[in-house]
Fold this protein.
Amino acid sequence: MSGEPVFVTGGTGYLGSALIETLLSRGHPVHALARRGSETRLPQGARASVGDALDAETFAAAIPARASTWYVLGPGHRWPVVLAPLYALLRMIPATRESAQRLGLVTRAQVIATLVHAVATPRPSGIRIVEVPEMRRAGS
């Protein structure tokens, strides 16, 4: 593998599994956190680390040196069904339009494209905050 190592939490989840598959396809060695009993659900090729995403002591030692670390925990794939009508309504109201556009929903593909771009172009500070409009551009 030629890419830099990456450690992903939430590796069996809706976003984490897609991120891992994409990173593996681009040559990154991926170490992924999974709950005990869920390790076999990780995408093939990911190295499993068993632990609790809410307790860093259970997985900190498994993070490889020089690895970028991604804490990928999301609301799951059903939330957009619930939130889409709300954001549509908020975009119609002048007082909330700008916030709804800035905080609105993005697709799974847009999230994965944004995360993969962030892995490929790390910031010197190690911290990156990406808002929805930038995620929409990355995934288009």
About this structure: The beta strands are 6-9, 30-34, 47-50, 68-71.
